[in-house]
Q: What sequence folds into this?
């Protein structure tokens, strides 16, 4: 899912996020071996799209009404939230609104490079290459604390059980919320 209006909120130099997070990711989705569709946020909000899995690439700017409607439309589906989901409430940054949208306690953080290097556990799972742009990303968020500290460089990870019985999981720049 892409929100074309959210792209208007991005500053010069934002290609460090939008290049891999909006453009390049769609090429990777095409290689996953499963059928998928690309839709606009407006179509999801209007109820024209029904799916078991939604990948929200850039749901950066949502009004309170859109947030409520989106929660209803996504109910029962798994949702992967990518970079800064719901960061803008109307025209102002609202980090607290991200928690209401995703279920994650996301806090601003700062690292020299937004680059995650696989740990030994990650390498045992087959991860070999560092992931991320290798330069500062602002704003940047971590789950549950102001600065992630388990990894060097840090990468946020969180899991939370939802009242609906599902769970939400976040790793790196993606946050997954099964409905």
A:
């Amino acid at each position: 899912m892409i929100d074309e209006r959210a792209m208007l909120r991005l500053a010069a130099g934002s290609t460090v996020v939008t290049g891999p997070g909006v453009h390049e990711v769609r090429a990777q989705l095409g290689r996953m071996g499963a059928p998928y569709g690309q839709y606009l946020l407006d179509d999801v909000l209007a109820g024209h799209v029904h799916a078991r899995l939604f990948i929200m690439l850039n749901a950066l700017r949502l009004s309170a009404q859109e947030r409520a409607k989106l929660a209803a439309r996504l109910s029962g589906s798994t949702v992967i939230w990518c970079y800064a989901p719901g960061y803008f409430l109307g025209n102002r940054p609202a980090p607290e609104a991200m928690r209401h949208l995703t279920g994650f306690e996301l806090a601003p953080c700062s690292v020299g490079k937004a680059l995650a290097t696989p740990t030994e556990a990650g390498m045992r799972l087959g991860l070999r290459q560092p992931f991320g742009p290798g330069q500062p990303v602002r704003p940047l968020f971590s789950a549950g604390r102001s600065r992630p500290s388990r990894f060097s460089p840090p990468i946020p990870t969180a899991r939370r059980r939802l009242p609906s019985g599902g769970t939400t999981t976040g790793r790196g720049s993606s946050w997954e919320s099964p409905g």
